[in-house]
Design a protein that fits this description.
The structure holds two protein chains of two kinds.
Chain A: E1 6-10, E2 16-20, H1 21-24, H2 28-35, H3 41-45, E3 47-49, H4 55-72, H5 83-96
Chain B: H1 2-10, H2 24-40, H3 49-61, H4 65-89, H5 94-116, H6 118-128, H7 133-146, H8 149-167, H9 174-186, H10 189-218, H11 221-242, H12 247-260, H13 264-268, H14 275-280, H15 284-294, H16 300-321, H17 329-349, H18 355-369, H19 375-390, H20 396-412, H21 416-433, H22 439-453, H23 455-482, H24 514-530
Helix pairs in contact in B: 2-3, 2-4, 3-6, 4-5, 4-7, 5-7, 5-9, 8-10, 9-10, 10-12, 11-12, 11-15, 16-18, 17-18, 17-19, 19-21, 20-22, 21-23, 22-23
Classes of the chains: A alpha+beta, B mainly alpha.
Protein name (chain A): Elongin-C
Pfam families (chain A): Skp1_POZ
Domain SKP1 component POZ (chain A): 6-66
Chain lengths: 98, 545
């Protein structure tokens, strides 16, 4: 994957997830962040820190991004969510506007 | 995910962070305020979007949205006030540039702030019905800068002055104008209209009123129209370059009103260069321009049309009642055709084939052609002349053209039956003396008349043609049947005419020599032999040897 097309998402514990920009843009918040006219630190370095999102949640979110892109292009598969994650996942989703 | 989110809000019992610090809101706001300062000072690169977004998110989540909103308003207002001061301080020509620069800055900052506060925009604002951040930013800009007492008048004056300078021929910075005007449009159409468009239209009206007064004193009609057209095009170009598209209709109205509408009568009736002169001299370009300009003005074209109609009627009447010209019917009709051609060309070239003008032309012609009671006879004589000799050697298409023109004149006649009477006489003479130039041309004219007036009108005329044809056949039959006896007798060509179709003629008796009588009798017997129940009368008058 080329450097310009990816973005790094960093969880609260410091885990780094490198994903496509296209996948990240599924989140409105991240999209605004990356397309904002101002030169925020994130756009400069191509990485976003989420000190309030834990690693497991962030991982599930990245999976969701990819599933969402798949769904949009026609393949209708299931996205499974473990119940114990669901509340935290929803709060994160609210935050990220996904 | 999004549908689950809505349900998630209702389960709200679980809070994963408890607000302990009562000054939490204050602290969070301070972070955001600092960030906004930095943004306005073009210093945003050190900031973390995520952190700011998170802070705003948390504030709204913990019910401090109200505070966030009001603090935002006051911070932005104070920044804008500072900007206003710097704009006011700018001197002379730099005023607009400074304004433009600050506007760009503000826009950029506004967008960044909106992105940070996106969560508030999404959730807090709809529920409390406050203005969203972007709109809020524009409104604050408008209130603090554009409508601030110093800047408002200065801005308006500067813009109008620049337009005025451009009208007198100077080159101004159009890009800058475009940006400023666009700013006004972005602030909302009422702002654009109040602060710029209305005074612009007023000033323009004054300017053009003065200019038109000046011009009309010194220029003739053609020149004045040229100048008016030039100004009109200039305004249209100005709009396309840096004004709102919707202003185009308004400013063209203003120009039309001041430069054209107030002076319509004067222009049309101007001595030596008014409409009538243009018509007489075939000034297509000037006429076209006049048509184009007057089109924009209510009643403009109807005045032109009226003057043209009365002019045509006058010239036509003169033509028709002049005893000199009436001596030669062919020439008379030719002149009529020429007049018609000339005006058709004018309408085609200059007036864009406008139907109303065409109608006016037709009605005028109709009027004066019928003033002369001998017109139908003259037209028939004209056709007669053409078909006898005028169209000799002329190609088929040209013949058609001439015949079409004659048809056109025919349409103007009110006494078409008079025409038919004369035409029948002339046609009979032509057919019987065999002097017609082209049979096809004759027939084609009959067809045209039939299309125009219906079968009834031409039935007799067609009957004449049929008779001629039948007679030929009869003659062949006669000579075939007679055999060698007839060789000694003078050759006879008989045309058998049906009484109804041909014009009646007084039967002056004529004493024919015996040989001829002999042959005539033979023919009579032959004919009555083949056709029973008919009477054959010798019509000497039509014969020729």
């Amino acid at each position: 994957m080329r450097r310009e097309e990816t973005v790094k998402l960093i969880s609260a514990e410091g885990f780094e997830f490198v994903i496509d920009k296209k996948a990240a843009m599924v989140s409105q918040t991240i999209r605004n962040m990356l397309t904002s006219p101002g030169s925020f630190a994130e756009t400069e370095h191509g990485e976003v820190t989420f000190p309030e999102i834990s690693t497991t949640i962030l991982e599930k979110i990245c999976q969701y991004f990819y599933w969402s892109l798949q769904y949009a292009s026609g393949k209708e598969t299931e996205f499974h969510i473990e119940p114990e994650l669901s509340l935290e996942l929803m709060m994160a989703a609210n935050y990220l506007h996904t | 995910m999004s549908t689950q989110k809505k349900r998630g809000f209702q389960i709200e019992a679980f809070r994963h962070r408890v607000v302990v610090d009562p000054k939490y809101a204050e602290k969070t706001w301070k972070i955001l305020e600092h960030a906004i300062h930095e943004i306005y000072n073009h210093n945003a690169s050190g900031l973390s979007f995520e952190e700011l977004y998170r802070n705003a998110y948390n504030m709204v989540l913990h019910k401090f949205g109200e505070k966030l909103y009001s603090e935002l308003v006051s911070t932005m207002t104070s920044h804008l006030k500072a900007m206003a001061k710097s704009i006011e301080a700018a001197k002379g020509g730099l005023f607009l540039e400074e304004l433009n620069r600050k506007w760009t800055d503000h826009n950029k900052a506004l967008q960044m702030i909106r992105d940070i506060l996106m969560y508030m925009d999404r959730t807090f604002i709809p529920s409390t019905h406050k203005t969203p951040v972007h709109e809020l930013g524009l409104n604050l800009w408008r209130d603090n800068i554009i409508h601030s007492s110093n800047i408002q008048t200065r801005l308006q004056d500067t813009l109008l002055e620049l337009v005025q300078r451009e009208r007198t021929g100077e080159v101004i910075n159009r890009g800058l104008m475009r940006n400023i005007i666009k700013m006004l449009m972005d602030l909302g159409s009422p702002v654009y209209q109040e602060d710029f468009e209305k005074p612009f239209l007023e000033v323009s009206a004054d300017f053009y009123r003065g200019e038109s007064q000046q011009f009309i004193e010194c220029c003739d009609c053609g020149d004045y129209l040229k100048k008016a057209e030039r100004r009109l095009n200039e305004e249209i170009e100005r709009v396309s370059h840096y004004l709102d598209v919707k202003s185009e209709a308004k400013i063209t109205n203003v120009v039309g009103k001041e430069m054209i509408e107030s002076h319509v009568h004067r222009l049309v009736h101007m001595e030596n260069s008014g409409l009538v002169n243009m018509l007489v001299d075939d000034k297509y370009e000037d006429l076209g321009r006049m048509h184009n300009l007057f089109r924009r003005v209510p009643n403009g074209l109807s005045i032109v049309r009226d003057v043209m109609t009365s002019h045509i009627r006058d010239t036509g009447k003169e033509l028709v009642t002049d005893p000199e010209k009436l001596k030669d019917p062919v020439d008379f009709v030719q002149r009529l055709l020429d007049e018609k051609d000339k005006h058709d060309k004018i309408i085609g070239l200059a007036f864009n084939n406008d139907k109303t003008f065409q109608n006016a032309l037709n009605s005028s012609f109709e009027y004066f052609i019928n003033l002369n009671p001998r017109s139908p006879e003259f037209i028939s004589l004209f056709v007669d002349d053409k078909l006898r000799k005028g169209l000799k050697g002329v190609s088929e298409e040209d013949i058609e053209i001439v015949l079409d023109k004659v048809m056109m004149l025919f349409r103007y006649l009110q006494e078409k039956d008079v025409f038919e009477k004369y035409y029948k006489q002339h046609l009979a003479k032509r057919l019987l003396s065999g002097k017609t130039v082209s049979d096809d041309a004759e027939r084609s004219l009959i067809v045209k008349l039939k299309t125009e007036c219906g079968y009834q009108f031409t039935s007799k005329l067609e009957g004449m043609f049929t008779d001629m044809k039948t007679s030929q056949d009869t003659m062949q039959g006669f000579y075939a049947s007679m055999g060698p006896e007839i060789v000694d007798c003078p050759t006879l060509a008989v045309q058998v005419l049906t009484t109804g179709s041909w014009p009646t003629q007084s039967s002056a008796t004529c004493n024919l020599p015996s040989d001829i009588l002999g042959v005539c009798d033979k023919f009579r017997m032959y004919y009555l032999g083949t056709h029973t129940g008919r009477r054959l009368i010798l019509a000497d008058k039509y014969g020729h040897s």
